[in-house]
Each structure stands twice: as structure tokens, then as C-alpha cells.
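DM from R.C. (forwarded with permission)

"hey, sorry to bug you on a friday — could you get me a structure for this? deadline for the figure draft is monday and I only need the backbone to look sensible"
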Amino acid sequence: MLVTCEQMAAAETRLFATGVSAESLMNEAGEKCSNAIRQFFPHPAEAEVFCGKGNNGGDALVIARWLKRWGWKVNVRYSHGRDELSELGLKKRDEWEAEPDTLAITRENSLVLIDGLLGIGATGALRGKILSAAQQLNERRNHSDSTCFAVDIPTGLNADTGEAGEEAVVADYTLSICHPKTGFAAASVSKLGRLINIPLEIPVLEADESIRFLFPSNLCPRLPRRSFAQHKGESGRTLLIAGSRGLTGAAALSALGASRSGAGLTTICVPEEIYPIVAAQCPAEVMVQPVGSIREALDFQHDVVAIGPGLGRDRDRSVIEALLHHGKPMVVDADALNALASAGIDPKRLPSNRLLTPHPGELARLTNRTGNRNQLTQTLANEWGLTLLHKGSRTAIATPGHPLELNTTGHPGMASGGMGDVLTGMCASLIGQGVSIHDSACLGSWLLGQAAEIARDSAEIAPESVSATMVAESLGKAIKSLRLQHY
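My reply, with the result:
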């Protein structure tokens, strides 16, 4: 759910009326934010903390104290000077300064920037000393290989509307305290970055329940756990129909996505002419079958079908026939979507057990509708009567009767070929394991992004160098991290 600034302020007032102090809340928020930063930077490094004079600056000083305790090299930059702080901020400053230095045996050559300049109540254009501090932070980020964590909200972003001027802080991670704010759903991902939920027990009575961000806390219960007695036939038979001449990689990647996300049995059907290539590319446990038609492929035993990755366009008529009339759940991607668009088939004619996974270009070919991305996704899903996974830097998942769900994981290195093919295999695998179509889309999106983060961090490489194969091979760690409810 999403909350406004007014709703958040009212909730804090109710909490304080019960005897909980603002200081205890600040201490808890700061410690949990520190732990979140440590999740992404597990070894001591260097931090520059940009501290405003309000309570957001107090939160940042609590973070500074924890990082210092863990052996980080920490430098605090005060926007208005070290003495121009709130009463509570002054106390946190004294605690930070009194914290003894901890000598780390080794420190990573990493720089973390902490944006604690302004909280969610600030509105309007940045000015004066805050503007100067925000410019310094952005310049530091732009001219160094550093990572910015915003405390609750990036400075200069309006928490209610998501609007932000050019001078606003650009965050790589936003540490959203208690609940995401309504503006986060509308904000540019380039300003907000990766969203992390910092849970606090604050009694919110009113909120927008129509939109939900995907976090481990609401996703973990949707991920099934297998019993010791379960066998492969009970873990889902996933059938993939993919690949064509020159596009064999898409077929192999979708099979890898299905296999690494837990499919009990994975069968991929490909044209006979590319069978030797795909058979050599696929994991050994995947059954690769050469077929002469879509109808022949559908004769193989299965619980769910994924169709489209690298399929080509020479079988459009039989693809459409399968999409319209096949009884089993289907994940519809890539050239299967293009076949629908080319034939002018209204997706509302499809059965409701279809998951459509278009990127913006494919969605534009399916419909000439434009508008707000989130509203468009929800509107189309409702009109079509099925689940729509609208891929992008903030993937949106919509199903009639469900809140719109927005993904939070991933990084810019995922803007490369093959990621959607892996996702298609994953979603089909999860559906085959008994997860609902909507929840499979949500889990698949979050796990794909988490796997991309793990692939980047475990290999210690730039995000641009992360490949779809590396992401698929990191899915096991991503699933484990979700079960442990890591950020």
C-alpha cells in the first residue's frame, strides 16, 4: 500500500500518543537503514553522509554512527553547519562523534553516499544551502564510482506527486521507511532507484490499497515450499515453444529460466532445423524435442505452456490458434505477441489463463493506447480479462481483482538481450508449480531483478557486463535470498 505525507504524519502522531518517543523511532529507523546498506555492502567501505538540519538528518546521523561502529570510514557533511540541527539532531550528532573509531582489518574500495538532507514533508524547488548540498552530492556521484542511498526519499522529490526538478538528488537506492509514499509510484525510476522497504510498526489507518510495491515481506508467502515427499511430476511440467533459425539463444535462455526456477520437468519444442544447436545449448536436464508444428508440440504432456521467445513469424496462424483455444495456462511473449498484433486479434478474445509479458514496444503493437504507464497497464488488464506483465525498469503487473504491483529489484545492466526470455521460462515454471498466474508474474519479476543484482555483486563486475545467462544461473541464490527475506 501507499501513503501520503499527511497520512504518515497522522500515523506518527498516533504512535507518539501511546508513549513511543520520536528518538526511539529515529534510532530504530536509522539502525534498520544501516542494516539495509550493509546488505548491499557487507564489508566496511567509505561513506559520506549529507546531513540536513531536520529529523531526516538525525536519521542519517544514526546511520553514520552504525557504519562507524562497523569499521567504515565515515565523513559527515552538514548542510547548515554542525550546530544548526534540531534538538534531536544535536543529540544524534553528539552520539555519532562520541562513537569510537573501529579499525577494520580491510576496507572495500567503495564509496557510499547517504542523502539525509530533507524528509518527505519538504515540497517545492530546492534552494539555498540544501540546493548547494544536493548539487554537491550529485556531483560526487556523477564523478566517482559511488552509490547513493536516500533516507526515506531522495531530496527534492515530492513524496505525494513524484515530481522532481533537475536539481533533485539522484538515488541508486531509496530506503523507504514504514511504507512507500504515493509519489513513488509516479516518480521517475532514474531519481528513485532501487526501492527498499524499512519496516516500522507505525499505525497507518488510511492508505492507497490499489497499488503495491513488491517486497520480500509480501512476496515470500507466495513462494511455495516443497515437502520432502514431492516428486518431479508434482513440481510442474513446463512446455516451451520457442526458437527459430538465428534465434536459438532465446529458446535456450527460456529453458534455463524454467530449469533454474524449479520446474519439475522442462520440455522445449523447436523446429527440426535448429534442434542440434538448441540441444547443445540447453541444460542437460531439459528435454529438447524437434517438432514440425505447434500442434505437435502441444501433444507433449504439460501443465503450462510458454510460447514466443525467438519463435519467428512463419507460424503465426498456428500460434494464434493455440493462443485462442488451448486449454492450459500460457505465458505469451515476444513473437507470439507480435503474431497477435499483426493479425489484429483483440487480447480480450484470449482465455483468462493467459499471462502476457510485453515490453513497451510489443505493447504498443498490441494497442494504440497511450497514457500513464501504471494506469494503462491496469486498464488493459481489466479490459482484456487476463494478467499483464508490462516489462521495464519498473515492471508493472496487473490482473483484474488484484492491486497493481510494481517491481523493486534490478539494475540498469538488465537493459540487454535475453532477460525477457529468462523471465518467460521462470513465470511458466512457477505457474506449473501451482503458483497463481498473477503471483508467478510478481515472483518472476522480483526474482529476475534480484538474480541480476546477485550476478553483478558476486562477480564484482560493472552492471553493464551482466548477461542473461549469468542472471539465470543466479536464480537459486535469488530464491534463497527471498526465503531469508533479504532486501
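R.C.: lifesaver. The two ends are 17 Å apart (CA to CA).
me: no worries. Residues 221-483 form a domain with the UDP-N-acetylmuramoyl-L-alanine:D-glutamate ligase fold (CATH 3.40.1190.20).
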